[in-house]
Design brief:
The chain is of the alpha/beta class and about 325 residues long. The protein is built from 10 helices and 14 strands. Helix 3 (about 75-85) packs across helix 4 and helix 6 (about 225-240) packs parallel to helix 10. The radius of gyration is 26 Å and the shape is elongated.
Length: about 325
């Protein structure tokens, strides 16, 4: 896509209806300060009521125009309908967090554009690209963007780099009084949209941190399929420890990427680690070589993982897990 400055419109979207809008607004301002080539044309802010704008003005980035959209929170679907119908920028920037990720992904779908969730940087020249962390934050990937609008939900790292709040002396005129930005207010319906029948807020449970685990069960391609991963999970539960997988298992979608161990995932140092069906590729070995005790199960006695192990069992991964699970169940069975 050519760098046509005249037709390249940039809009910043912020959630002023959140309990703490300052951190996300500061993250966006820090991102813009680090990317001086991005000049926002418009800032769109979701608010609960128009009077909230008085507090929010000092938090907002400098833009020629500001639009405040008043809607009950959480009314994401209503806000999406307004945004999709009223705006169509070339570049849309959303803050870090759930609000930004939802708005970026769903706005891109409605605009038939491109979304990047967790964007660390943005480059605009002969080619347009965005950079983000992948593989559990262990790799920085650059994605070329070709289908506008480009919707960026910023990475959480920008929250740590956010601009500090400005301290305004008590007798000083409020910053909003000196603002030269043109402003407009829009009100969204206060009732739930017809397609939203109900909503429930649930706290997301944090998964086990493989990097901090003291005991660990790891499996590789020798599991053969998703059923093997289910057996792995059941065995790990009986052992009372978290489990992880090698890269081929994750790439086959047998397990989530947050279970990945090795240079592309978690780097671990447990007291003991048991690997099953793992050949011992260098990428995975780097993630487990700091284990105090390493045991392995593999059909190949010449596999690299066997040479690194304190204890090695030559056998099938699934069959060994089944036998281990049976022994654990017998051990854990309540005595009559």
């Amino acid at each position: 896509m050519p760098d046509d400055s005249a037709n390249f419109e940039t809009i910043v979207f912020l959630n002023g209806a959140s309990a703490e809008p300052a951190p996300s607004a500061g993250a966006v301002k820090a991102f813009l300060a680090a990317h001086p080539q991005i000049e926002p044309d418009l800032c769109v802010i979701a608010v609960r009521k128009p009077s909230d704008a008085d507090f929010l003005r000092s938090l907002l980035p400098q833009t020629p125009t500001r639009h405040f959209v008043a809607t009950d929170f959480p009314q994401l679907e209503t806000l999406l309908e307004i945004v999709a119908a009223k705006y169509r920028p070339t570049l849309a920037i959303f803050p870090p967090g759930l609000f930004g990720a939802e708005m970026a992904a769903r706005s891109a779908a409605r605009w038939r554009g491109t979304a990047v969730i967790g964007a660390a940087s943005f480059e605009r020249g002969e080619k347009i690209s965005a950079q983000k962390s992948v593989y559990s934050q262990n790799l920085q990937a650059v994605f070329e963007l070709t289908q506008a609008p480009f919707c960026l939900a910023l990475a959480k790292e920008w929250l740590a780099r956010r601009e500090p709040p400005k301290v305004v002396p008590p007798l000083a005129a409020p910053e909003s009084a000196a603002s030269s930005a043109e402003e407009a207010f829009f009100s969204a319906p206060s009732e739930n949209p017809p397609r939203l029948l109900a909503f429930e807020l649930r706290e997301r449970k944090k998964t086990s941190d493989l990097a901090e685990a003291k005991r660990l069960l790891i499996a590789g391609l020798g599991l053969e399929d998703k059923e093997g991963v289910a057996l792995l999970s059941e065995t790990a539960a009986a052992l009372g420890c978290p489990w992880g997988v090698s890269r081929p298992v994750a790439m086959n979608a047998w397990a989530d990427l947050d279970k990945l161990v090795g240079v592309s995932g978690a780097m671990t140092s447990p007291d003991w680690c048991l690997t099953v069906g793992v050949s011992g590729a260098a990428a995975l070995l780097a993630g487990v070589e700091s284990s105090r005790r390493l045991a392995s199960v593999n059909t190949d006695p010449e596999a690299p993982i066997v040479a690194r192990s304190d204890l090695a069992i030559v056998g099938e991964a699934k069959e060994t897990l089944k036998e281990l699970l049976l022994l654990l169940r017998q051990k854990n069975r309540p005595k009559s």
